[in-house]
Amino acid sequence: MPANELPAVGRPTSGGDASSERAFFESLRARRRWVPATLILVAINLALFGWRLLRGVPAAAQPDWQELVRLGASYGPLSTGGERWRLFASTFVHRDYVHLGYNVAFLAVLGRYLERIYGSVAFAVIYLTSAVVASVAISLWAPLHVVYGASGGVAGVAGALMGFTLRRRLDVDEAVRKRLRNAGFFIIGFGALAGLLNRHVSDVGHMTGLVVGFSLGLALAAPELTRSRRPLLLVAASLLAAGSIWIQPRVWDVAGERQRADGLYAALTVRYGERLAKHEAGALAQPDFLAFVDGDIVPSLARLETQLARVPPRGDDGEPLTMLLRLIRARHHQLVAMVQASRSHDPADLSRAAALESEAEKLADAYRARR
User: Is the pTM of this model over 0.70?
Assistant: First the structure.
């Protein structure tokens, strides 16, 4: 039911009237008995939470962030590193029973109003656009935080109801507007209180969802909005949501990338040391040892060097990351020279390999001291 075809409820009054309020909501229910979009969204949230429990992931108030990320939560370095879908999927991931409960309850209660006012497609666009843009806003504000939850979409629904009450203040009874407005204010107040009491709750997401929902609700409730222009507005909102997913530049977890590279380098060092010990003990022939170094260790170091070189050396971990990169590069060059010298037996090659080994050992000592 388009917003410009809302049922009339008589001349607006300043104090409201219970019969006018009842007539308005009965008229909405008569025109749209079922609210399929609301039910589908609620069902998706519940189904994903149930799937999480079946996988053995506990619904804890202090969650394992890695588990939430595996379930689809958004994390800046992943979301901007080729997994942009997380900014959408994260809106269906919830922390625990309480988090799921109040989001689903608010969605079910407010969604039935908004869907009956604007229609299923418009309601879905309002909810999903608010949720996705809120997810993006949180990721921009705190790029290294794990982002999840439907509260941005729920705040958008509350905002859309308030936009409707403002736009239709001249032709919808005060009792109706007051009921819808109070429902919106309750959600806003609840979100603000949750943000104060729980550090895992993002006020940035709530406010962003509220603003997006309010703007869409205000626009869709305009009496002058024609049938032909309404789909264009919904398409524009959908494009806004889709486009917002791509506005965030690449986010790097410098500490995490350094630790990952450190672990890989340590594993390569152990593998190299094991084969070197066998070679020195006579259990591994020199051609086989050189083939192992040239075909396994050297390419692995080259890949690790390339991956680490892409990470900007920022923050407290910037210096040790740069030192590790220099160490990996030096070790790579040293082993390439060692293989060449061992095969050629050229004194110049042997001298160069020894010099590169000495340089790599100095860098290793410096890195260990800094780490």
Answer: yes
